[in-house]
Structures are given as C-alpha cells and as structure tokens.
Amino acid sequence: MFKYARLYARDEGDSPDLAFQKRLLVIISSFLFLCGVAWWLMWYLIFGWSIPTVAAGLFGIMVFVMIIVSHVLKNHYLLAHAVFLGTIIVPVTCQWGIGSMHDSGMIIAWAFLTPLGTLIFLSIRPAIVYMIIFVVCILITALYQPTLYGHPLEVDESIIRLFYSMNLVTSFTVIFSTCAWFVHTIKVEKNISEELLLNILPKDVAEELKVTGDTRAKAFTMVTVMFTDFEGFTSVSKKVSAELLVDEIHHCFSAFDNIIQKYKIEKIKTIGDAYLCASGLPISNYTHAHDMLSAAFEMRDFMLARKKEKEAKGEIPFVLRIGVHTGPVVAGIVGVRKFQYDIWGDTVNTANRVESSGEAGKVNISQSTYELLKDDAAFSFEPRGKIEVKGKVGLEMYFVESVKPQAGGISKAS
Question: Which string of b and e fits 291-330 if b means at least 16 CB within 10 Å?
C-alpha cells in the first residue's frame, strides 16, 4: 500500500510537503475504508440490517469511490472532505441508531478524528467549523439520546463492553499516534531549521538570536583573516561551460568548508571565486593564527592535488592564491529577511590586499601574522620586504611554508 500511495493524485508540480500529505491521506483513507468494512460486518453480525450497519457500509463504499475519483481528478481535497464528513456522520448516526452513549460504547468518540484530520490536512478554519459540529453533535446526543430514533437497539452487556474497549482504545490510539507523528514531524523540521541556521550563523550568535530576537555587533581585538582567490579565474571561465565552472567552484569550496571546520574557523562568505574566513571569533582563542595557517596549507595542498587530477584529464585547473592578515575586526549580523554574519574593518581590507599580492600555490602573510608565529617551529618564513598595494604605503609580507603537518597547536602569542 505504501508503494502505491506514492502514485495517488501525483502531479509533477507537487512540492515535497504536498506529495507527502497526499500519500498520508490516501493511507489513512485506505485504513478507514477497511474500518468501514469491519464495522459493517460487525454491525451486521450483531444487529442485522440496522441503521449502524447501513451507515458503516455506505461509509466504506464512499471512501473507496472517492479514492478513485480524487485520484483521477488529481484533487485530494475531494477525498479529504469526503473522509472528514464520513468520520463525523457515521459515528453520530451509529450512536443515535443504537440509542445511548452507554449502549454504543461511546462510538461517537470516533467523530473527533474529523476536526483533528482537518487540522492536519487542510487548515485551522475548516477544523474549527468541524470542531463546532462535533461539539454540537455531542450536546444533542447527551440531551436527547433516549428519543432520537424512538426505537433504540437492544444491546447485551458483553457487547457493550466490546464496544467500549474497541471504540475508546482504538480511537484514542489513533489520536495519540497522530499527535505523536505530528510532534515527531515538528522536531524533525526544527532540527532541519537549526542546521540551516547554523550554516548561516555561528552557533553562539544563532543562540543569542533565538533567545533575544536580536544580536549586537562585537569588536574583536585580535582575529586572523584569510582570503583565497583563483588566479586567472576570468580567463578560465571563458574556456569552460557555466555548469562545469559552477560545479568546480562548488567542489573546491565544499572542501574548504570541511577543512576550516576542523580548525573551528568561521566561514564568513564567498564573493564570486573569493573565499573569506576568520579565526578567533565569535569566541576568542589563542591559537587563531596557527589554526588559520594550518587550514591554509590543507587548502593549498588540496588545490595542488586537484590540479594534477584536472591536468591528467586534459582539463583546465584552478590555481589558488592565499592571503592571511591578523588584526582587529567588528563582527555582527546584517540583513532582516536573509541574515548574514559578516566582519568589517581595515583588517579585512588588508587581508584582501595580502591575498592579491601573493603568488599562486603559496601562502602569503602580513607582518602582524608573522609576529604571532615567527617563533612557531611548525612554520618557516621567507621575507618579501615591503610590497606596495592599493591604499597602503607598503606592507611587509612573508611567504610561509609548513615544516611538518599540524592538526592544531598553540601560538606563542595572540
């Protein structure tokens, strides 16, 4: 049944939520159809051809027919309303036909599935209407049950106990199962939302936003910022298709994401083929410069390996420039509808200048980053002297190499 439920009223334009809603509706409707058949047989064996027997039989037939009709017309709302009306009419009709709440074992409790189902499959407004109808039926039954039909059916005490056990246990089991599924679905969707939020914002910032509804910009006195860029990207982009270009950028940036995650470095954003990240925020630490260079070399080595793969296939590879600078920044959230965690300050601009002044396949760092790491045995440095860059008088820069693989460590200063 679950396999064929995927085909019910299927339309190519259905969203995943709508497709799931259709599958769930036809599964529940099929279950109610079987319940209608079971009720018809039970009423017939107990009472013969009576009002409850006819009502249950007609309900089963109606649900079966509406499943087919709504599938052909690709309109699941027809089935939804038919099922909702049936699940309120049949229990009430059976209740009145038997003659009292006690003798029927509270079969009218099944009618509560109508407002509950409407709330899940349609919306709150029709659910409120059905809830009012349900309450009115309960009140009418409670006030006038002895004289509703004038000829109540005679029911043995053993049958009454059967009715109670079947109606109350089964109906409330269905209600509990529905609520449990609904709560589970909410938790799953909440987890998905949490993951999406954490993909956009740092964890601490996201928690502050959820608790207070707002976040404050924060100044950091010492953060290490890295820019990367693909050298000759414009010329390469003219020689490959747009699809292949985007796929390659996605492949590389996905690898970068995984690398910086190892070192608890915060990705800030990508700008075209540029990649910006920062170490030492939103939680300050003493290893930000060391961590950033460790990540930089992993990214550099990944791109070198990727270059060999591309050249072996006769494809045009990307070559990476990396620039690192350390200094103060201000970090915070910008935007109202689409949040973005960003950083500002001269440190960001300088890191960009250091990157653009570097060479492909090398890690270029500024004087401030060098001062933090010059005594770190994990790295060796090649002075480049003062490099003239846009907007700066001259920046001392160094090419740096990794002496041995590092998985993290503590720099001599922060």
Answer: bbbbbbbbbbebbeebbeeeeeeeebbbbbbbbbbbbebe
Q: How far is CA 260 from the centre of its chain?
A: 23
User: Is the bond preceding residue 282 a cis peptide, omega within 30 degrees?
Assistant: yes
What does the pLDDT read at residue 208? 66
- For 51-73, the DSSP string reads HHHHHHHHHHHHHHHHHHHHHHH
φ/ψ of 376, rounded to 5, equals -80, 115
Does residue 195 register a pLDDT over 80? no
β pairing state of 274-279 and 266-271: antiparallel
- Residues 309-315: contacts with CB under 8 Å, at least 24 apart: 315/240
Going by pLDDT thresholds of 50, 70 and 90, the confidence category of residue 412 is very low
The model's confidence at residue 214, banded by pLDDT at 50, 70 and 90, is low
Q: Are 225 and 276 in contact (CB under 8 A)?
A: yes
Tokens of 325: 């600078």
CB–CB of 392/366 below 8 Å? no
* CATH numeric code, 203-402: 3.30.70.1230
Phi, psi of 401 (to 5 degrees): -125, 150
Percent of the chain whose pLDDT exceeds 70: 87
Alpha-carbon distance of 17 to 185, in angstroms, equals: 11
Q: Half-sphere exposure (CA, 13 Å, Cβ side) for 182? A: 11
Q: How many CB atoms lie within 10 A of CB 41?
A: 14
Asked if residue 238 lies in contact with residue 283, where contact means CB atoms within 8 angstroms, the answer is: no
For the chain, helix, strand, coil in percent to 5 are 60, 15, 25
pLDDT band at 112 (very low <50, low <70, confident <90, very high): confident
Q: Write down the domain spans for the chain.
A: 2-198, 203-402
Vertex 266 angle, CA 262 and 271, to 5°: 120
Are β-strands 218-231 and 379-387 bridged in parallel, bridged antiparallel, or unpaired? unpaired
Contact call for residues 197 and 206 (beta carbons, < 8 A): yes
Angle in degrees, 0-180, between the axes of helices 76-98 and 51-73, rounded to the nearest 10: 180
Output the average pLDDT for the chain.
81
The answer on pLDDT for 298 being more than 90 is yes
Instruction: Please tell me the distance from the alpha carbon of residue 48 to that of residue 50, in angstroms, as a whole number.
Output: 6
